Amino acid sequence: MKDIIFEGESTTTEFKRKFTTPEKIAKEISALANTKGGYLIFGVDDDGSIYGVDNEKGEIDYIEEACAFYLDPPVEAEIEIIEINWKDIVVVTIPEGKKKPHKVINTEDSNAYIRVGEQSVIASREMVKVMEGMNPDAKSLKLSIGKNEKRLLEYLNIHPKVTVMDFSRLCNISKRRASQLIVRLVRAGVLQIHQDSTTDYFTLIPDDKPL
User: Fold this and answer.
1) How far apart are CA 170 and CA 191, in angstroms?
2) What is the DSSP string of 90-150?
3) How many C-beta neighbours within 10 Å does residue 112 have?
4) What are the tens digits of pLDDT across the range 29-55?
5) Which of 98, 102, 193, 211 is deepest in the core (most CB within 10 A)?
6) Considering the domain boundaries, does residue 210 fall inside one?
């Protein structure tokens, strides 16, 4: 755990110096579960300084409440109290979700989150659709390559990446239609989705041979 803290925040690690509300805790758990899983560590500042926590029992109750009642589907996390430098920290180990997306549910928020670098950001519509399509109980995908898909693949043989808006303009189709087609190509393993803090972009899967 000292090594993990020394390496700092990342796609799989989030520090919190103090506990917040169950809703905010659920946001971080959602992001980690929807990405690769990882650690949510309380009692550690953003720079890795260890401050410890004061009321472990009450704070663990907050975490359990967030996992069970503020996430849909719920997340089963492992909670441990670990002593480092004579201070107690709370480590929440979050597995990668098997039924993504895990959405935050409360009166103000019904979004799914993902990790982008050291940040938890709202998952885009396309990212949510991709996660839903990758679930084991999702409907099987039937993919056909039409003129729009062919034009997109030709575009990506020249350009390194494309956005939904780029695709919409390229083929003169609605943004909604462009989104549906591009998500199907991601689900089929032809394209890869990338999300930063502002938008999505899509690239060809390495070594993929466009049809």
Assistant:
1) 17
2) EEEEEPPPSS---EE-SSS---BEEEETTEEEEPPHHHHHHHHHHSTTSPPP-----HHHH
3) 24
4) 999 999 999 999 999 999 999 999 987
5) 102
6) no
pTM of the model: 0.86
Q: Based on the fold, state whether residues 26 and 99 are members of the same structural domain.
A: yes
User: What is the DSSP pairing of strand 103-104 with strand 113-116?
Assistant: unpaired
CB half-sphere exposure, 17, CA atoms < 13 A: 6
Instruction: Provide the number of structural domains found in the chain.
Output: 2
Q: How far apart are CA 125 and CA 203, in angstroms?
A: 17
| Residue 143, phi then psi, degrees to nearest 5 | -110, 130
Same domain, 49 and 135: no
Under DSSP, is residue 203 helix (H, G, I), strand (E, B) or coil? strand
Structural domain range at position 47: 2-122
User: Is 41:81 a contact under the CB 8 Å cutoff?
Assistant: no
Domain boundary, last residue among 122, 147, 174: 122
- Asked if 108 and 35 sit in the same domain, the reply is yes
Does a structural domain hold residue 156? yes
Task: Give the total residue count for the chain.
Answer: 211
Rounded mean pLDDT, 108-116:
86
Residues 150 and 148: their CA atoms lie apart, in Å, by 5
**Identity of the amino acid at 197:** S
On whether residue 211 sits in a domain, the answer given is: no
In a domain, 169, yes or no: yes
